[in-house]
């Protein structure tokens, strides 16, 4: 095959020159290797491994053979087979080369490693889709995560190569995507800590910074550290390229609920601009203190919110909404009864909720208000016998940024 001869010759030259960038281009599924694999798959001919071993040094001959087998399997619609060939025959050997040399001699492998990490993630996701359709165990992304750890180790633990350490940030970005896809969120913490410990963030490319801040923000929201989540997600939003509106939308899906938990509402224009119309009734519910509207909106968009991983965040807005409603009730009560402005009967809140179609029995309502006080949404105390909330005379409704948003008992 003329195409194969030309491909092997060019790859051999790139390897001899240690031209990692060109070698990575050739060992990409989008290269001429894809056409070679298509011809092999169409003809049913075996891979001419002798031609590879005669022109390529070890272990590259075996690695390239595995790479081409992967592409042939892809052409045949065998995604799981393609993924295993790539991971076990190509990516594993490449990671071994990186880990064998911790110095600068193997810096030329960096483009190959980064290309392999991205390709392996894609192949693993496609393989899991195929396995799931067949009713088999979809475990290729899990195997991918292990391979990515090997790449990360080979780059981040270099003794003398700053270029390798800097490149490890790109691998961590891929790892974050895989871990969140697998819902193995706690696995994100170790590589992120290593990046922070080695001060690699400052040298990272802007795109990688945005990605890392995005996932760090999501991780902080998962840990109920909403101030930290706000900081990282806001950075990601402000520095995300304007030419990538889909990425901006992904950031806003988490930043909007985090901001609302902290008392900052998005504008209608922002939600319209990025196609987040499902958040508009929630924004209105928070602004109006309308618990009925919030609950109906959560129910109407439950599947969408669960799939995007924001449902639990949005559900936490219930206390924010009830606080807003209680504040409005307290304001009306103060106008009607100025002498007892700080003594708000629970019956008024009960009536306001009933107008929104929400029924709460007396004990449930007392527990709700007690929770508001306990979490510092409201300053005051609940007089159980008289069913009255006695508000603090100053700062009865502190800023949401000062509220105990996380569970105060979670650490006990």
Automatic annotation (TrEMBL):
Top-level taxon of the source organism: Eukaryota
Any one of the GO BP annotations: transcription elongation by RNA polymerase II
One of the record's GO cellular component terms: transcription export complex 2
Domain annotation PCI: ranges: 210-396
GO molecular function: double-stranded DNA binding; RNA binding
The protein's name in its UniProt record: PCI domain-containing protein
Organism: Pleodorina starrii
